[in-house]
Amino acid sequence: MDILNRFKDKKILIWGYGREGKSTEEFFKKHPVAATVEVSEAKPEEIDLSGYDYVFKSPGIRLQHAVLEQFAEGDLDKITSQTALFIEAFRDRVIGITGTKGKSTTTSLLHHVLKTCLEAKDQSRTAYLVGNIGLPCLDRFDEMMESDDIAVFELSCHQLAYTKVSPHISIFLNLYEDHLDFYGDRATYYRAKRHIAEFQEEGDYLYIGTDVPDLCDPMLQKVSGEAPTTMPKSHIIRVTDRYEDDAMNLLGEHNRYNASFVNHVATERFGLDAAMVKKAIEEFPGLPHRLQYIGTVDGVRFYDDSISTIPEATIQAAESVPGCATVLVGGMDREIDYTPLIRFIPEHPEVTFICMYASGKRVYDETSALTPTENMIYVPDLSAAVTKAKQVTKSGSACVLSPAAASYGYFRNFEERGDRFSELVKSM
After folding, report:
1. Rounded to an integer, what distance in angstroms lies between the CA atom of residue 367 and that of residue 389?
2. Angle at 180 (CA atoms; ends 175, 186), nearest 5 degrees
3. Which of 258, 365, 376, 381 is deepest in the core (most CB within 10 A)?
4. Could you report the per-residue pLDDT of 122-160, keeping only the tens digit for each?
5. CB 379, CB 353: distance < 8 Å
6. pLDDT per residue over 285-324, tens digit each?
7. Which residue spans within 210-341 are E strands per DSSP?
8. What is the pLDDT of residues 43-71, one digit of tens each?
9. Dist CA 175 CA 100 (whole Å)
């Protein structure tokens, strides 16, 4: 394939050896075109890129601005990724999905709908789930080469940051304040996200949410004066409607919004039968740790929303779960703005917010200072929070773990946090 010829006799460095780094190494073993392929797990301040032609950086390696100054001229131009290689190779058959929240659910739902409906229509064609959820994209490279299949690709800000190619169909769900511990400000974070559409061409499509700023928003001027002055060349469709179907398994108004993106793309871009799409959307069970029903104990329904890492997600959870009476909040404090949640808590005295860990203490203190309220409790950790929830949550109502914070420092990831919550609930 022509795209592989660029690597012929070149020296390649795979920087980072997690799931994606190992996948990239296997790819070049199957396609041995390079002169050398080496692996490094060096920290950004320790790496030397001078001896390589291409550097496949894993998303987990985050190049903060303070580190970028150490690189020699031209070194950053060598940085690429398996994401960039895959999208460039198959961009006409790639649907990319990003957003601060909801991208995993939307990506998985779209994959489910396309796979179900495409296979029903033509058994020789299917859809693959790749990227931030699903398999690393290069694991599907050979199958995509030999078929007319579709790749449904969840794209994180870290995958997009050094990508200079955009998918044929892009979905930009929403933009909230997040990852400020890494990016420093919302504008820099936004610039990484907007790569989902920045390099689209005429004939491409961008489905964009109502709360995503205009793609040449003036706030981008704050970043080194590099703000684009023009919109992408693609067809831009603002999605404003909500999918109206009470038979959906997914809870919440936000998931009706996510489903609307899926319905638009499936019916408008692929011409799939609306009734089949509707049936597939209804059948989708949802993902673990995303408003996942855990079980009922002493008449109290428990839900795991451990994926929640921002206040907007916690507010959505409290509003989405029927009979929500208790919400468990808190985790790592990344210094994001908790104003939406701090305002929400006093306005909803029917819900008890059990705050924990560093960010929970901050929410508790800042809310108390602004509007003294009786519907908050502070406890040190998740175990104590579950114990307290059992004491204060009335039978017939619901308790939700929706932390509005990252898990790091207390758990390996949000999955471990959710699993621990489930264990504590089931051991009551």
Report:
1. 20
2. 45
3. 258
4. 788 999 999 989 899 999 999 999 999 999 999 998 899
5. no
6. 999 999 999 999 999 999 999 999 999 999 999 999 999 9
7. 235-239, 292-297, 300-304, 324-329
8. 988 899 999 999 999 998 877 665 677 78
9. 5
Contacts of 63 (CB under 8 A, 6+ apart): 44, 57, 161
For 406, half-sphere exposure in the C-beta direction (CA atoms, 13 angstrom radius) is: 14
Extended beta strands in 16-126, E state = 36-40, 54-57, 79-80, 94-98
* Residues contacting residue 275 through CB under 8 Å, at least 6 positions apart: none
Which strands, in side-by-side order, build the sheet including 54-57? 36-40, 11-15, 54-57, 79-80
Sign of CA dihedral 356, 357, 359, 362: positive
Q: How far is CA 237 from CA 265, 380, 393, in A?
A: 11, 46, 43
Q: Which two tokens stand for residue 366?
A: 């800042």
Instruction: Report which residue type is found at 160.
Output: L
**Greater confidence, 101 or 344?**
344
CB atoms within 10 A of CB 185: 12
Provide CB contacts within 8 A for 343, sequence distance 6+: none
Residue 320 has which token pair?
């989405």
Regarding beta strands 324-329 and 300-304, do their DSSP bridges make them parallel or antiparallel, or are they unpaired? unpaired
* Statement: residue 236 has pLDDT above 80: yes
Give the C-alpha distances (Å, rounded to integers) separating 297 from 289, 320, 382, 397: 18, 20, 17, 11
Please give the model's pTM, rounded to 2 decimal places.
0.89
Residue 154: enclosing H or E segment and its boundaries?
A: strand 150-154
- Nearest CA-CA partner of 337 in 176, 118, 175: 176
Q: State the residue for tokens 């504590």.
A: 424
Cβ–Cβ < 8 Å for 371, 363? no
What 3-state class would DSSP assign to 375? Answer: coil
